User: Fold this.
Amino acid sequence: MQMKDPIMNIKLILSAVVVFTGSLAITQAGPSDDVAAAAKKLGGESSYSWHTTVVVPEDSQFKPGPTDGKTADSLTYVRMSLRDNTMEIYMKGTNAVLSNPDGGWQTLADLANDGQGPGRFMVGMIHNFQPPATQAADLAAGVKDLQETNGAYAGELTPDAAKKALSFGRRNSASNASGTAQFWISNGELTKYEFHVKGTISFGGNDREIDRDTTVEIKDIGSTKIEIPDDAKKLMQ
Assistant:
């Protein structure tokens, strides 16, 4: 039956357009939304582990080794290596304890009071530490135009995001920063991400050129467990 009221016809058409375009907005999430949702899903898991590798130029003075991390029950464990040295860190909230060269444990206050640059650097790095779920979300938010290609989501970092990644979150210590990032997702969950950053960082008044590739692989989602030594646990209480 044909409707005789033209105004009613227009209202019905406009309502259909609103419903249709609204549905498109809901169903057609962009790449940034996909990565943000995947990182959020990972962050909501009870536990997961990760493995980080960093590649720097052969002539770089600072050559970090691989890092292994775990997060479970609000506790985070990180084991990092630099040349022949290995450090273990347990973090919970604002508390953290670190292994020392004597085989014992020290607090952030102990490290900050050692009067040396490396100690202060480690304190700053721990204060700015981000677990993979948080770091990936932060990186994705800092990509100019995230696009899906060859099974990954990739794009160029904004100067500010590259600066933050280059200087471990200390925004004022880096300049001329640039970089890229890419992310891999499986079953709606983040499984791997990489970022490449380069620029200039000031250490003790001396400028150093940095060129760094970082790869983080996620594993053991929901099954990771952390056991903390009694001596370390007492220092965190």
About this structure: The longest strand covers residues 189-203. DSSP finds seven helices and eleven strands in the chain. The chain has a mean pLDDT of 83. Residues 31-236 form a domain with the outer membrane lipoprotein receptor (LolB), chain A fold (CATH 2.50.20.20).
